[in-house]
């Protein structure tokens, strides 16, 4: 009986397409990349030692060096053969070919040594690729060895410049030959046949002896008796090196040892790609039923683990499997399941609460005269991260239960992020304020989730405007709820002014670009005076924006929006460049004063910040110690390693650091340990109220004393009158700024003021 389509998580068409893709991958061998990567990983982690039954006698660099004129003569080859024979080796495999040595005067000496070993010696038959062509050239041993000398192929099969397979039997010029590996392992084949190497062998466990030690008598029967010996080149000049997957480059003789060890363990088989694909189909098949949909992800992960683990385990049993097609099938199924789930979650029901979601709300008939109420759980993300297990579901359940008391029979809608909304009919509008006040009272009581008691705050947004689509009216209520959170109000109503503000915010990036290029954003400079001497010691560069239609925009407004829109870095660099350029011009006029620039601590996470400032200083030939960077929002530094590194780099560059607005918000004692500041700026809210508030006066005094103990300069902001100036002087404050000393002004006005006689411009 066929399974109904609706009972499956994905359609039969998706399953069939996934299977078709996997079949194409398997047939075309396109999935072998994954298998080869896994095999290479196995090779890299190889830990299996070789048996030691096969050893290498190497014609290594040391042997070549000790040979006359670095030429290993045929007499020396003969001496190696005789030494191996004398040591009682089981067999000797000569991994050399001598087609260019037959004319040597001592070649007969080598032939004689070979013949004396009889059938215990095997000579190599080499098959090499002709460079630039597909032809292969085979080199058989000289006929001078006689017809009875055993011969074997030393051919290997390379794919992607690596040796993956070695023949058991190899056909060369019509003659079927055994290979070194098959003879050593006692295996044979009546047809040309190859097998996959067992890459789990550790090549470092292969025993290698230098031919020089054999010829000198250091190596003999104790090391070679009863063993198969491969006499092979390892000196770099022979270029007989191969890439073994997962291993470093190894000499050709090592390949023969690994191949022999593989065959000695058993008969390697290759089951191909179809069995793993069938396993993948079986393992994932049942979980595609809707009743088992929660098990789909574990099943997919488990299938991948089984496929990879099975391949590795089978490999240790000399069974080669190809899982690329199976992995493609699993990936295709996972992709279809994921797409279906995303489509399902985008439908009209919230999976956590079971309530209709905002898409369902937007799809209702026009709201008409109904008022839209949006409710947002404050810090919902923090609660979700804090509450363990499925507690967040219980939290949503309890929040939903309390909100349903206010919806009074209307449908409550729930989005994914702790946001709710409902409609209030026109005849209930007068009751809205009372409903929200009642809800606030309900949420004064903590929620109990298991053993936890959780305080939950909630804020509301109201939109009783009748204009706009359902989506626009819902969005407006959400904007009002966000504003209620920011202003810590119980609820706020969406107004046309907020709509204008929203439009300003949405187009802020492009407006900022136009303002920077059009000159609407400019830099004002406010002077700073040494309080004791009334001498000008610095200026602070301040961003200003004169909008062509909105007029002057308060700095707090556009700077906060720049931080939200990620444009603060661009704006800061603009001000920084103008400030450094202006400071350089002042120095050129003989005015040596400090230039201060504000920098939000959020920008300290930019790894290229210091380098950019250095480039600006160098371009304008301004000494770094002339620049003071005022750090705001210092709490951002607390958990940022990059920010602390940036501060250290700024100090090493020679740039001065200042803590701005000290004593308010997020600037406090803790951050004096984070920032090794050259100056501390006392916030104007304390300075301007000193003569009216003894408490604030003590704050200012203690801050000045603290700055001096730390070796920093105390700077007072917001000096509005002579009385405040005198009081600061009596407290020992170093530097001051404010409207009493000078307002922020254009650079041209600053230059003009500096060119007036000193008595005319003193503070």
Automatic annotation (TrEMBL):
Source taxon at top rank: Bacteria
GO molecular function list: cyclic-guanylate-specific phosphodiesterase activity
CDD domains named in the record: EAL (cd01948)
PROSITE patterns assigned: EAL (PS50883)
InterPro entries membership: CHASE2, Cyclic-di-GMP_PDE-like, EAL_dom, EAL_sf
One Pfam family in the UniProt entry: CHASE2
Positions of transmembrane segments: 271-289, 296-314
Keywords, in A-Z order: Membrane, Transmembrane, Transmembrane helix
Keyword Transmembrane: yes
Domain EAL residues, every copy: 505-758
Name of the protein: Diguanylate phosphodiesterase
Organism annotation: Sphingopyxis alaskensis (strain DSM 13593 / LMG 18877 / RB2256)
